[in-house]
Amino acid sequence: MKLKQPQLPRKCRECTVIHEIFQKPPEAPPQEFKEMRASELMPELVVGGRSMRRVMETIWRIRRSNVPVLITGETGTGKELVARALHFESQRWKNPLIPVNTHAITPSLFESTLFGHRKGSFTGAHRDSEGLARAADGGTLFFDEIGDLQTSVQAKLLRFLQEGEILPVGETKPVRVDVRMVAATNRRIEKEIEAGQFRMDLFYRLAGIQIEMLPLRERRDEIPGLIDHFWRISCAKEMKAPRLSGRARKLLLSYDYPGNIRELANEVRRLVALASARERVPAESLSPRLLDQANGHGPNLAAGSFKVPKGLKHYEAVNELERQMIRSALDRRSNNLTRAARDLGLTRKGLRSKIRRLSLEPSL
User: Fold this and answer.
1) Residue bearing the bigger pLDDT, 316 or 221
2) Do the beta carbons of residue 222 and residue 46 sit within 8 Å?
3) How many CA atoms lie within 13 A of 135 on its CB side?
4) What is the mean pLDDT of the chain?
5) 20-63 pLDDT, tens per residue?
6) How many other CB atoms are found less than 10 A from the CB of residue 363?
7) How far is residue 195's CA from residue 350's CA, in Å, rounded to a whole number?
8) Alpha-carbon span 28 to 21, nearest angstrom
9) How many separate domains does the chain show?
10) Inter-residue contact 137 to 181 (CB < 8 Å)
11) E-strand spans in the chain?
């Protein structure tokens, strides 16, 4: 007589299945990231060093998740590229990726820009607007430089993240929106929280997964591949084939790049644009700032060369150090914002923002 296998109750069967799923080893990332959809759709994404491979491995592991991601790092380290890779590698890749420039949104227009409005709901609302959140429905909403978001609108963004609903200006019924949130910042958000400039609860909502983009000076193993990558692209655009001399390449490899990948890309484009069709580009063609560092005359922006008064709180000391570094760079560059920003590894707009925040305007 054949014995029947006893049937587990439904709840127990489900528990068994869940147990078996978690007993399986985690799926390993591909050995070559060329297999990833992001690599295919984004030829400008260069994965050449250990740091970027770790970033891409994280993107691979969370590709089926909707967890919010916060990308941190200095200006020019490739945060926007990582945000795009997160979108293209996710299950939302066929839907929109909508960037939100926090610099361009004033507090008074935040709700209208993000959540939309009805025609006639306020002065200047001449037609209906769906807003950026609804435009990204089913896709990804990318908040660039989230650390610059005004404190007066942070609560509105937090509610949207908590509820998954928006209330367009002039509407009476909330609208559900399905978006994945990705944000980036070049600020230390923890310090902004200490200074009362950023909400802690919003930070934890945004930082479900945190990806740090190291500065290029700490990813030197990636510089050779990046030089070759930008050189090929620039030669194709300029329709010429100059070569880089050994000394010029050596100086490019040894430079600190305070402007990170963006500065490296611009330097390579400049060299190719100025070169003759088949010229061997000499080291003398490099920008003065690279030659200055090679000759030992580069800017001294080390924190140790500045003094911070005792007795200050942490955020006060950080602000004072920033003030001294900015004043030093401006003095050395005769108040030329563009050159001072380059020395500090900032954009001109970013430097101007810090000058306003640190109340340095009157002294300029």
Assistant:
1) 221
2) yes
3) 16
4) 82
5) 333 444 444 455 555 566 555 566 677 778 888 899 999 999 99
6) 10
7) 19
8) 15
9) 3
10) no
11) 69-73, 97-101, 140-144, 165-166, 175-176, 180-185, 209-213, 243-244, 280-281
Tell me if 24 is assigned to some domain. Answer: no
Q: pLDDT tens across 269-296, in order?
A: 999 999 988 889 999 999 988 887 766 6
79: nearest Cα among 308, 347, 356: 347
> What does the chain come to in residues?
364
Domain end position, chosen among 294, 326, 355: 294
Residue where a domain terminates, one of 177, 198, 214: 214
268 and 185 within one domain: no
What angle separates helix 260-274 from helix 223-238, to the nearest 10 degrees? 40
Its sign, for the CA torsion 329, 335, 341, 342, is negative
- Neighbour-count burial of 111, counting CB atoms closer than 10 A to its CB (0-12 exposed, 13-18 middle, 19+ buried): buried
Tokens 């610059």 map to which residue? 148
In angstroms, the first-to-last Cα distance of the chain is 97
CB distance 358 to 323 below 8 Å: yes
Range of the domain at 132: 40-214
What is the pTM (predicted TM-score) of this model?
0.72
Task: Report how far residue 38's alpha carbon sits from residue 63's, in angstroms, rounded to the nearest whole number.
Answer: 11
Q: What is the largest CA-CA distance in the chain?
A: 98
Say yes or no: 221 and 265 in one domain: yes
Q: Is 244 helix (H, G, I), strand (E, B) or coil?
A: strand
Mean pLDDT value of segment 311-323: 77
* Alpha carbon separation from 258 to 289, 292, 320 (Å, rounded): 11, 14, 21
Q: Between residues 193 and 356, which one has the greater pLDDT?
A: 193
Residue 157 resides in a domain: yes
Note whether residue 155 is domain-resident: yes
